[in-house]
């Protein structure tokens, strides 16, 4: 009962933060800016929804195929459609309750494919480690092609205009603030959990060991080249979705590769920070595009358009998978009993 209460409390906390971030991203949009947004949407290329929808669905399918590859290395061979349905239902569940989707998709696949759920959870952990390493690589590329981006992005949260006379916060001060916040969080965690510095060192040691185990595990895959290929394709599709999204609005058509890397980096942080990226994703995308000179109202609209597109795909795909899961397996069962 206590655990259930804490889960509900955690959900309400994150949902509340998401609502706050959504309000923050929209609070400065006055009537004039709403008019600008409406005018921009009137001339939007709505037909681009089709390729973006296809790219997002394909990215989820690639993730399912990559997951199947990991499961196959354990000696189990689930059907591709069952793996895909599990992934989509897991994503949809995560929109409501953080992290529950990982358990749900493992439970569903275990039920229909007769695979031990604990082994499936092990593959999910490995997937997350590989994705974390890939995301760090994306950050590195983004920073390499535009070194001042992160400083400019943090400054964007403290300024409300592009006035060149408006004094910006120096990079070393930003670094000191971020470092200070991290230290405060660590100290609060130690105080609440009654941990010592030795426990912190042990935690970092475990994280380092887990990352190394994740990298090493790929080397032992029978089809590791194929796994790496799927990983590259998966993140390329994420990148491509944002790149094509620039062409949806006239005001964003001039943006290209470096901006798409920035959108991918910022959007990934938003998705990690909040369940389904609610509030955080559109806010971070808007602030990122604001750094590139896009007017605030259009940047905000662009962030919400990208988030709505992804959420719509997850909801539609998840609901379809929820209905298709028993249907497809019922057909398969009937075929095998003939």
List its salient traits.
mainly alpha
Write up what this structure looks like.
With 338 residues, the protein is mainly α. The protein has one domain (48-336). 79% of the residues lie in helices and 0% in strands. It is built from 13 helices and no strands. Helix 4 runs antiparallel to helix 5 and helix 12 packs across helix 13. The protein is globular. The N and C termini lie far apart (47 Å). Residues 161-166 have low confidence and may be disordered.
Helix and strand topology:
Layout lengths: L1 H25 L4 H12 L6 H24 L7 H17 L3 H14 L3 H29 L3 H8 L14 H23 L3 H23 L4 H22 L11 H17 L6 H12 L4 H41 L2
Helix pairs in contact: 1-12, 2-13, 3-4, 3-10, 3-13, 4-5, 4-13, 5-6, 6-9, 6-11, 7-12, 10-11, 11-12, 12-13
Rg over C-alpha atoms, rounded to the nearest angstrom: 22 Å
Whole-number average pLDDT? 78
Q: Based on Cα principal axes, name the global outline.
A: globular
Number of strands: 0
Unreliable residue runs:
161-166
Can you summarize this structure?
The chain is an all-alpha fold and 338 residues long. The chain has helices at 2-26, 31-42, 49-72, 80-96, 100-113, 117-145, 149-156, 171-193, 197-219, 224-245, 257-273, 280-291, 296-336.
């Amino acid at each position: 009962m206590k655990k259930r209460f804490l889960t509900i409390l955690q959900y309400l906390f994150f949902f509340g933060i998401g609502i706050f971030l959504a309000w923050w991203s929209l609070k400065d949009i006055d009537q004039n800016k709403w008019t600008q947004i409406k005018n921009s949407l009137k001339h939007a290329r709505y037909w681009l929804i089709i390729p973006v929808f296809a790219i997002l669905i394909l990215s989820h399918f690639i993730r399912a195929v990559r997951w199947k590859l990991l499961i196959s290395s354990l000696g189990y061979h689930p059907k591709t459609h069952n793996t895909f349905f599990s992934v989509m239902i897991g994503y949809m569940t995560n929109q409501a309750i953080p992290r529950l989707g990982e358990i749900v998709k493992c439970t569903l696949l275990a039920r229909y494919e007769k695979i031990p759920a604990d082994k499936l959870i092990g593959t999910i952990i490995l997937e997350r480690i590989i994705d974390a390493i890939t995301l760090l690589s994306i950050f590195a590329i983004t920073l390499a092609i535009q070194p001042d981006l992160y400083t400019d992005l943090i400054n964007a949260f403290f300024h409300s205009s592009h006035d060149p006379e408006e004094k910006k916060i120096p990079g070393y001060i930003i670094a000191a603030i971020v470092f200070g916040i991290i230290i405060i969080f660590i100290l609060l965690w130690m105080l609440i959990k009654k941990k010592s510095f030795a426990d912190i060192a042990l935690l970092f040691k475990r994280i380092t060991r887990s990352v190394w185990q994740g990298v090493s595990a790929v080397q032992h895959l029978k089809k590791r080249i194929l796994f790496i290929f799927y990983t590259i394709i998966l993140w390329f599709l994420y990148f491509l979705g944002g790149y094509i999204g620039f062409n949806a609005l006239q005001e964003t058509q001039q943006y290209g590769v470096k901006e798409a890397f920035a959108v991918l980096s910022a959007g990934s942080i938003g998705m990690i920070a909040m369940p389904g990226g609610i509030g955080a994703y559109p806010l971070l995308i808007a602030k990122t595009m604001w750094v590139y000179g896009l007017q605030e109202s259009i940047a905000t609209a662009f962030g919400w358009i990208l988030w709505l597109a992804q959420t719509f795909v997850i909801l539609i795909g998840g609901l379809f998978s929820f209905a298709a899961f028993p249907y497809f397996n019922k057909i398969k069962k009937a075929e095998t009993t003939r």
